[in-house]
Specification:
The structure holds two protein chains of two kinds.
Chain A lengths: L8 H6 L7 E5 L2 E4 H17 L7 E5 L4 H12 L3 E4 L6 H11 L3 E4 L1 H4 L11 E4 H4 L9 H6 L11 E6 L9 E5 H15 L6 E4 L6 H12 L3 E4 L6 H10 L4 E4 L1 H8 L2 H4 L8 E4 L6 H10 L5 E7 L6 E5 L10 E5 L4 E5 L12 E6 L6 E2 L9 E2 L2 E10 L5 E6 L3 E2 L6 E2 H9 L4 E11 L3 E10 L7 H11 L8 E5 L12 H5 L2
Parallel strand pairs in A: 1-10, 3-4, 3-5, 5-6, 9-10, 9-11, 11-12, 12-13, 25-26
Antiparallel strand pairs in A: 1-2, 7-8, 8-18, 13-14, 14-15, 15-21, 16-17, 17-20, 19-20, 20-21, 22-23, 24-25
Helix pairs in contact in A: 2-3, 8-9
Chain B lengths: L5 H15 L20 H15 L10 H4 L2 H13 L1
């Protein structure tokens, strides 16, 4: 086997690291690559002391932090498999995740031990933050750090991480991500973003979420840095840090940008260092994209993109120069990824015809931890994304919605996204979500949950009037509920299950 | 209406937080971060709307910081400063 096929992801990610340069900033505290590698060594030693085996699963339970990054890298470097857990759940909710992976060893922030005490088995090993932080000051000398290569792996087959799917539709599952998957996806993203060692990302997305992890992977590989801020709810702090640390990049999901665009302080800033903005994690309504483009400095490139945990992270992007001519498109496959639209019989869809998006590339993951043959999206080396869309004459893809996110009023299939986009055309409305509710006449009807922009007033009847003009009569919501915000998970995705129960 | 004192503000605020957030720990120290009370960004949005109504104040976008809203203690100080200058 060639040496490149035995490459551990750790060696790939740290290949361009300059030990003297900053890797991370967190609450005003910096961590250089040298200090980070010192902490990685601490994690390796702890794992060894626990007797952690090759390809053994090791959980990580912490907020984004230098500790989190050191654990992730240390686990991967040791040849074990990192399993990043969501860090803001209740103990009851987290239990379905810990039951799924059943780790013998857990890397955990001491602050979380009390909250999740009952989930941490008495005989399990803990790698505590308080035990790892002292290693930051014993940063390995450059020559020894560089000579300590990672445990070789079969990068095509062996796993680097188990990444949880968001579980917004039910029980969580974990995606088996190989070393090669991450190397392939990271290389492609760096190539189209042109990331450089002086790039610095404002990281507000959690690293346990694949979009957040992709920011970490790409900036480490580029030899760049990240500013960690775990408190996006305090937007002003995030904006101040972006300017103080001269961030060159910002990444977010639709709700991130909806919040920012409704914030006067964001709209008034210049962001002199900002080179690029990435949006993924769901469709941002066209008018928000246009608004964002007009608010951002002219020299900032805006990348609309699309991806899935099952594809490591990224699948497509729309080049910034196509933003106006192809508004609403998720673009084309990133380098190394082929995207096709197939119809229900599995045949290639014609131009403009709606079908399922199917992906092929080295970033398509090895499968689910819990495989259910009845709903296996990994078939014949391809990923059947479950997302519905079509391609235009130039091959640009437009998302229509999630295959499963539809309602059936009077037996007609209507994508929830179709109704949401119609409602979001109204300038007074900040956010909208549609769920299906039982209905006496229609069987199932759409119910809308909407959030108004600050200081806007609009009646239910006005919204319904607008819907009647834009939608077939059966798709017009049976009711509108006004909220101050939509319930979202830590990845910023709207949790429709919890709306259904309100 | 006579202005509220700091301890009255605290009392009203704790009443609201305790009633509205199931994971709120009433006997935790006042400087406990809101996140440790299980209050996420949706919760934070609700709190801002609530304190604007309950205390008749206006919260500017530039005031949405941890220093102002990060814990019970900072919220009380923030509201107190708005009401009593």
């Amino acid at each position: 086997m060639a040496e490149s096929e035995r490459m551990n992801l750790f060696d790939y990610l740290l290949e361009n690291a300059d030990l003297q340069r900053y890797a991370l900033f967190e609450e005003g505290v910096s961590t250089t690559y040298g200090e980070l590698l010192g902490m990685v060594e601490g994690v390796e030693r702890s794992l060894k002391a626990c007797g952690t085996g090759f390809q053994e699963k090791v959980g990580i339970l912490a907020e984004n932090s230098a500790f989190w990054v050191a654990c992730y890298l240390g686990i991967i470097k040791s040849g074990a498999v990192a399993a990043p857990l969501p860090s803001r759940l209740t103990a009851d909710d987290l239990e379905s995740y810990t039951n799924l992976i059943r780790c013998r060893t857990l890397c955990i922030d001491d602050r979380l031990v009390a909250r999740y005490g009952r989930l941490i088995a008495e005989n399990s090993n803990q790698v505590l933050k308080s035990a790892i932080m002292p290693f930051k000051n014993s940063a390995a000398a450059p020559e020894t750090a560089n000579s300590r290569k990672a445990v070789p792996v079969d990068s095509e087959k062996e796993l680097a991480a188990l990444m949880f799917t968001s579980g917004s539709t039910g029980q969580p599952n974990a995606v088996k991500v190989t070393h090669q998957n991450i190397m392939a996806n990271t290389g492609s993203i760096i190539a189209y973003l042109d990331l450089l060692p002086d790039d610095r990302m404002m990281a507000v997305l959690p690293f346990h979420y694949c979009f957040g992890t992709s920011l970490l992977h790409t900036h480490l590989r580029a030899g760049g840095s990240l500013v960690i801020n775990n408190y996006f709810q305090y937007v002003e702090d995030v904006l101040n840090e972006m300017e103080t640390f001269s961030c060159t990049g910002l990444a977010g999901v639709p709700s991130t940008f909806q919040s920012l665009l409704n914030n006067k302080s964001f709209r008034g800033r210049r962001f002199a260092a900002l080179r690029h903005v990435q949006q993924a994690g769901g469709k941002l309504a066209d008018r928000y994209i246009e608004d964002l483009r007009s608010v951002l400095p002219a020299e900032t490139r805006l990348f609309i993109s699309y991806g899935q945990t099952e594809a490591t992270a990224r699948l497509s992007y729309l080049p910034p120069e196509k933003l106006q001519t192809k508004t609403g498109s998720i673009g084309k496959g990133i380098p190394g990824v082929t995207l096709q639209i197939v119809d229900q019989t599995g045949k290639l869809a014609a131009q403009g015809e709606i079908g399922e998006i199917v992906a092929e590339g080295n970033n398509v993951a090895a499968g689910y931890l819990l495989s259910d043959p009845a709903k296996n999206p990994f078939r014949n080396g391809k990923l059947y994304t479950g997302d519905i869309g079509y391609a235009d004459a130039d091959g640009y893809i437009y998302l229509v919605g999630r295959e499963k996110d539809f309602i059936k009023p009077s037996g007609y299939k209507v994508m929830a996204a179709t109704i949401e986009h119609a409602i979001l055309e109204m300038p007074e409305i900040a956010e909208a979500a549609i769920v299906g509710v039982p209905h006496d006449q229609l069987g199932e009807a759409a119910k809308a949950f909407v959030v108004l922009k600050e200081n806007e007033r609009i009646t239910e009847e006005t919204i319904l009037d607008h819907c009647r003009k834009k939608l077939p009569i059966y798709a017009v919501p049976c009711g509108i509920e006004f909220m101050t915000a939509l319930p979202k998970n830590s990845a910023g995705k709207v949790m429709k299950m919890s709306l259904k129960t309100t | 209406m006579p202005a509220l004192t700091g301890s009255e503000i605290r009392e009203q605020l704790l009443g609201y937080l305790n009633d509205s957030f199931p994971l709120f720990i009433p006997d935790a120290p006042d400087d406990t971060p809101m996140a440790d009370h299980g209050i996420d960004s949706l919760g934070m949005t609700n709190i801002v709307v609530q304190i604007e109504q309950q205390f008749g104040i206006e919260v500017e976008d530039t005031e949405i910081t941890r220093a102002n809203l990060g814990s019970v203690q900072s919220l009380v100080n923030f509201i107190d400063k708005k009401l009593n200058g």
